[in-house]
Write a structure and sequence with these properties.
Number of helices: 23
Helix content: 40-55%
Number of strands: 24
Strand order of the largest sheet: 6-7-10-11-12
Strand content: 5-15%
Largest sheet: 5 strands, antiparallel
Shape: flat
Low-confidence stretches: 26-41, 430-434, 614-642, 665-671
Mean pLDDT: 80
Length: about 725
C-alpha cells in the first residue's frame, strides 16, 4: 500500500512531464499520435519504454483498426508525384492490409474455443445461492458492459492484446452501492459490489510498477478556464494492492492542481491492473512486451504504399490523356475599350500587362471536337492545303503502360504473402504456400502452434487473474476459486492440410498407425466448432476402433476373423445409433461417459444379432477352410492334405470347398475372373494373397490347388 505523500509526489511528477510536452503535439484521433518515429519526441516521457510502446501501437493500428489513416507513410510525396496526385491518394486511401490482422486473430482464437477448455465453479455459500447471487451467475450473465467475463477475455480482448501488448486490463467497481447515514454517503454493506474489467491502451498508462499503476481516465473534472467553468480537467486513477484512488484536477486548468481522494477499498491484496503481454524483450534494463504482429508491419507498410501507387495509376489508365490536332485560340475580349485577342494563351494590354485567356486557359489552342464528339479535319481548298495530317493520326490517347500496374500488383501480392509467412499463417488462396515442401509446411505449423500456445497461456493467465480479483473484490473471504481446465490441444491444421497429409502418408506407405492418427485429427477438426457434434465424435471415436480404417482394410480383417460383426455394424451406423439413443433419452449425453459407451455398443450388438439371425453367411477365411479340413480328418490326413486336394478335380474343389460354380467352357473363359469367382471367391483370393502368415510357396500352392491356377499364373500373382 502506497502512502498519500507518495501519491501526491507521483502525480506531481506525471504532471511535470506532461507540461514539458511540446505545444505542437500532433492531434490524430482521440489520444493517439501519428505512426512516425519522428513524432515520438512530442510525447511526455512518463517512464522508460513509454514512447517506444506508443510507437509500436501506432505501427500496428494502421493495419488493425478500421478508419486509421497512416499520416507518416504519406506525409511526403513520392518522386515525380504531383500535389494533385498525392491529394487524390489521401482522399481515396483504403486499408487493404486489415485482413492479415483479422486472420491472425481468428487463427489464434481457435485454441480457446469452448470445446478446448472448461471451467467448473465451486458451490458458493448458501447466502449467495439463496439470494440468487452466485459467482457463476454474475460472471456468465450479469457481468457489466460485456455480458460475461468469457466474452471480454475471449472475444473483446484478443484483438486489443494483438494490437497493444503493453496495454493493461484494470478491474474496478462498475458502480459503488451507497446509502446515506448520518447525512453522509457510505458504501452499502449489504450490497455486493459489481467489479468489471476495462482495457486501457498503453497511451493512457502513465505509470506502472509491481506495487502500483496510474491510468489517465476518460473522466473529466470541472476546472476554471479563462474565468469560465469547463469540464476539461484531468482525472487519474491510482491502483495499489488495497485501494483505488482518484487524483482530480481542481482550480485553474493551467495550474495543474490536484486533490487525491480514496475512491474504493478493494482489499484484495492484489494490484488490480495487469498487462496483457506478448513477446517479452529487454532493451537495456527495461523489460517490454511486443505484439507478434509487429514483425510484419514493415512489409505491410510497403503493401499500403504500393496499393496507394496502384490507385494513383488507375485513373491515368482508365482516363488517358487525349492528344489531338487543335486550332489557334483567337478568343477576344474588350478591356477598357481596348479589343484584346488571345496571343499564345494571353491577352496583352498596351501598358505591357497581360492576363490569361479564359477560353484556352493559357494554352493558346482550342480543341476541334464538334458538338457531336467528332474531330473535323480541314480539307484542301484552293491555295489552302488544309490539314496535312491523316485522320487516323489526328488524335490518339496517351496512358501509362500496363506493365507498371501489373508490377505493382505483383509487389502487393508478394508483400501480403511475405507477411503471412512471417506470421506463419495460412491462407486458402495463397498460391506461394503450395510450393512449400512437406518439411517446410510442418516446420511452419510448429512455429504457428508455438505462437498460439504462448498467446493462449497468456490469455488464460489473464482469465484466472480476472476471476480471482473479481471474486475477492465481490465476495471477500467468501470467494471460492473455480477449477479451470486449460487448453491442451494447439494443433489446428485446416481440413485441407490434413487431407494433404493423409494422401502423402498413404503414398509414402507409412505404417497404419501413422495414417490412422492423421485421419483421427482430420475428423476431430471437422467436429471442432460444434459442441454437440464434438460430444458425438468423442463417443464414437471411443466406441469404434475401426473409425480410421478403409473399407478394404475392414473387409480384410473381417475375412480373417479379426473383427466382430457388431463392430462392423457399429462402424457403418454409429451416427444413426447415437441419434436413436438421443431420441429415446434426451438427456443421453448428461449420463456418465461409460454408460453412454456401453449403451452405444449394446445397440450395435443388438442390431448385429438381428442380422445374424436372418441367415447372413459369415465372412470367408482361407485359413478357416484349411482349419475345417484339418479338424475333420485324421492326423494322417492332415499330413496328406495336399494329396487330398490333388485327388479332387478343379470343379470339385470349386463346388465343394468354395461353393463356386463349375468352371465354364472355353468360350466363356474370356469373362473377367471376378465375374466368375463372385464376391466370396474374390474375397478368398484376396485374403490368401495378402495373408502375412503364409509364405509365398504356400500361397502359390493354394492358388494352384484351390483355384485351379497354373503355376505360371500363380507365381505372377504372388511375385
Amino acid at each position: 500500500m502506497i502512502s498519500p505523500e507518495y501519491i501526491y509526489n507521483l502525480i506531481a511528477n506525471i504532471v511535470d512531464r506532461k507540461r514539458q510536452q511540446k505545444k505542437d503535439k500532433p492531434r490524430i484521433g482521440s489520444q493517439f499520435i501519428s505512426n512516425s518515429g519522428d513524432d515520438v519526441h512530442h510525447l511526455p516521457d512518463y517512464y522508460d519504454g513509454y514512447t517506444l510502446s506508443v510507437k509500436w501501437l501506432e505501427q500496428i493500428r494502421i493495419h488493425a483498426q478500421k478508419g486509421v489513416y497512416p499520416f507518416a507513410l504519406f506525409s511526403k510525396q513520392a518522386p515525380n508525384q504531383t500535389p494533385a496526385e498525392a491529394e487524390y491518394v489521401r482522399a481515396n486511401y483504403k486499408q487493404t492490409t486489415i485482413q492479415v490482422f483479422k486472420d491472425m486473430v481468428d487463427t489464434y482464437g481457435r485454441a480457446y474455443h469452448e470445446n478446448n477448455w472448461s471451467i467448473q465453479f465451486t458451490p458458493d455459500a448458501d447466502q449467495y445461492v439463496n439470494a440468487n447471487q452466485t459467482f457463476q451467475q454474475y460472471l456468465d450473465s450479469e457481468f457489466p458492459e460485456y455480458g460475461s467475463l468469457d466474452n471480454f477475455v475471449f472475444t473483446f480482448l484478443p484483438p486489443l492484446k494483438m494490437m497493444d501488448a503493453m496495454g493493461v486490463v484494470a478491474i474496478m467497481p462498475h458502480e459503488i452501492p451507497v446509502i446515506e447515514k448520518d447525512g453522509e454517503q457510505i458504501i452499502d454493506p449489504d450490497e455486493l459490489v459489481e467489479p468489471f474489467t476495462k482495457f486501457y491502451h498503453t497511451t493512457r498508462v502513465v505509470a506502472y510498477d509491481e506495487e502500483f499503476a496510474v491510468i489517465e481516465s476518460e473522466e473529466r473534472s470541472i476546472v476554471d478556464y479563462n474565468g469560465k467553468e469547463m469540464q476539461d480537467g484531468l482525472v487519474y486513477l491510482i491502483f495499489d494492492d488495497q485501494w483505488i484512488y482518484k487524483a482530480i484536477q481542481v482550480g485553474k486548468k493551467v495550474d495543474y492542481q490536484f486533490e487525491v481522494m480514496e475512491w474504493f477499498n478493494h482489499a484484495t491484496g492484489i494490484v488490480p491492473v495487469k498487462r496483457v503481454e506478448g513477446i517479452a524483450i529487454q532493451i537495456d534494463e527495461t523489460m517490454m512486451q511486443q505484439s507478434p504482429f509487429l514483425y510484419a508491419t514493415d512489409i505491410l507498410d510497403e503493401v499500403l504504399l504500393d496499393s496507394a501507387l496502384l490507385r494513383g495509376i488507375k485513373p491515368t489508365c482508365t482516363y488517358p490523356f487525349r492528344v489531338m490536332v487543335g486550332e489557334y485560340c483567337e478568343f477576344s475580349i474588350r478591356d477598357n475599350g481596348e479589343q484584346l485577342v488571345c496571343d499564345n494563351g494571353y491577352h496583352y494590354r498596351a501598358d505591357g500587362s497581360k492576363s490569361i485567356c479564359p477560353e484556352c486557359n493559357g494554352t493558346g489552342a482550342k480543341d476541334r471536337i464538334s458538338p457531336y464528339g467528332t474531330l473535323l479535319i480541314k480539307p484542301q481548298k484552293g491555295a489552302n492545303n488544309g490539314d496535312t495530317i491523316s485522320p487516323d493520326r489526328a488524335i490518339y490517347y496517351a496512358s501509362p503502360s500496363v506493365e507498371t500496374p501489373n508490377f505493382l500488383r505483383q509487389e502487393i501480392a508478394s508483400g501480403m504473402s511475405t507477411a503471412y509467412d512471417i506470421l506463419h499463417l495460412k491462407k486458402t488462396d495463397n498460391k506461394v504456400q503450395g510450393s512449400l515442401t512437406a518439411t517446410e509446411v510442418a516446420s511452419d505449423q510448429k512455429s504457428l502452434i508455438a505462437g498460439i500456445k504462448q498467446n493462449c497461456i497468456q490469455l488464460f493467465d489473464m482469465y484466472e487473474w480476472c476471476i480471482d480479483v473479481i471474486g475477492l473484490m465481490r465476495y471477500g473471504v467468501n470467494y471460492r476459486k473455480p477449477i479451470i481446465k486449460r487448453p491442451v490441444n494447439y494443433d489446428f491444421y485446416l481440413e485441407a492440410d490434413y487431407m494433404a497429409q493423409i494422401n502423402e502418408a498413404i503414398t509414402s506407405k507409412q505404417p497404419p498407425f501413422v495414417i490412422q492418427s492423421i485421419i483421427y485429427k482430420y475428423l476431430q477438426t471437422l467436429y471442432y466448432p460444434d459442441v454437440q457434434g464434438q460430444k458425438v465424435f468423442n463417443l464414437i471415436s471411443q466406441a469404434d476402433r475401426l473409425l480410421t480404417m478403409t473399407s478394404e482394410e475392414i473387409n480384410l480383417k473381417q475375412a480373417k476373423g479379426l473383427v466382430n460383426n457388431w463392430e462392423v455394424v457399429l462402424h457403418d451406423s454409429a451416427i444413426n445409433f447415437v441419434n436413436s439413443l438421443m431420441m429415446d433419452n434426451p438427456d443421453f449425453f448428461e449420463q456418465d461417459f461409460a454408460i453412454q459407451l456401453e449403451q452405444l455398443i449394446n445397440k450395435a450388438k443388438e442390431v448385429a444379432g438381428g442380422i445374424g439371425s436372418m441367415g447372413v453367411v459369415a465372412p470367408f477365411s482361407s485359413q478357416a477352410i484349411i482349419d475345417d479340413i484339418v479338424s475333420n480328418t485324421t492326423i494322417d490326413a492332415v499330413e496328406k492334405t495336399p494329396e487330398l486336394l490333388k485327388d479332387m478335380t478343379a470343379n470339385e474343389r470349386r463346388e465343394l470347398l468354395l461353393d463356386l460354380p463349375a468352371q465354364l467352357d472355353k468360350a466363356s473363359e474370356e469373362r473377367l475372373l471376378v465375374e466368375v469367382l463372385g464376391v466370396g471367391g474374390t474375397q478368398a483370393l484376396q485374403s490368401i494373397v495378402t495373408d502375412v502368415n503364409l509364405s509365398d510357396s504356400q500361397k502359390i500352392n493354394l492358388l494352384v490347388e484351390v483355384f485351379g491356377f497354373t503355376n505360371e499364373v500363380a507365381n505372377r500373382i504372388i511375385r
